[in-house]
Amino acid sequence: MDKQLLDKYFKGQCTTQEAAAVENWLASADTMLLDEFMMGKWEEANAPVVMKPRVHPFWYGAAAAAVIGIIVSIAFFWQHRTGARPVAVKWDTLHNTSDNIQLFTMEDGSEVWLNTHSSIIYQNRYNKESRELWLHGEAYFKVTQDEQRPFLVHTGRLTTTVLGTVFNIATSNMADGSIQISLLEGKVAVSKPDAFNEVLLPGQMLNYTDGRQPQLTNFEKSDVLDWKKGKIYFNHTQLADALARLQQRYGCRIVLDDPSLGKKKISGEFSRDMSLEKILSTLGYVHDISFVRINDTTYQTQSK
Fold this sequence. Notes:
Pfam families: FecR, FecR_C
Keywords: Membrane, Transmembrane, Transmembrane helix
CATH architecture of the largest domain: Sandwich
Radius of gyration: 20 Å
Strand order of the largest sheet: 1-4-5-8-11-12-15-16
Number of domains: 2
Number of strands: 21
Order of helices and strands: HHHEEEEEEEEEEEEEEEEHEHEEHEE
Domain FecR protein: 97-188
Helix content: 10-25%
CATH topology of the largest domain: Jelly Rolls
Mean pLDDT: 77
InterPro entries: FecR (IPR006860), FecR_C (IPR032508), Ferrdict_sens_TM (IPR012373)
Structural class: alpha+beta
Domain Protein FecR C-terminal: 231-298
Number of helices: 6
CATH class of the largest domain: Mainly Beta
């Protein structure tokens, strides 16, 4: 999707055909592009806007720690397909750029624990006509039951539909960009248009990589919810995937000078208050690899 067309859409400058194309794209959008677009709009905003969701400081193991998140609301306009006058639609962005977990309580009472460097966006119609949001990063959801309005989470071209349940979604924890949806309580349906519709039961995880069939497996809570307890846990994890998780948690970029290093396995448990440098040093010691800091946000491996 062209960013200029997105900009026109949110400013209410699209033709009926253009608006329809954008709305179809939003139903199956790549969240990375949408998140990048919304964050760009946030940077352009000059005045703060009051958000509806209640925001709670939330961090296991840090007494009275104040969690600060960036909360952005930007008003846009869009055209009715019938050609009627534009109707104001506000897109709300909840973006956690802090190093701590942030808890948001949505208007319907549903709770969203947003991991570091993760974001969700939704329209101001939330809890009126529907309960629908887009996720980039990782979040843990505890959804208030409402049979009349299912709760929908879009991640790339996947849609997770629930009535009331507890589940976790991660979109950037794996080196191959795969998405993991893990169900703890209740029941969810995960679908991709014209491809599949899988129903998950408690204890099941759906792993999806674009272009491949989804895989259903069982999971250990400690493997999936380590971040919510202030831990980073690797259990025979490939180094490439371990580094992908560290990139997500610390908001950085870690480059492997030799791609074959990514297949090496790592096991261990780390505290979230440990510095990235210390974790990388420990991981490197296991396989005789050194990590060199290139700049403030980039690290690169160097085989010894």
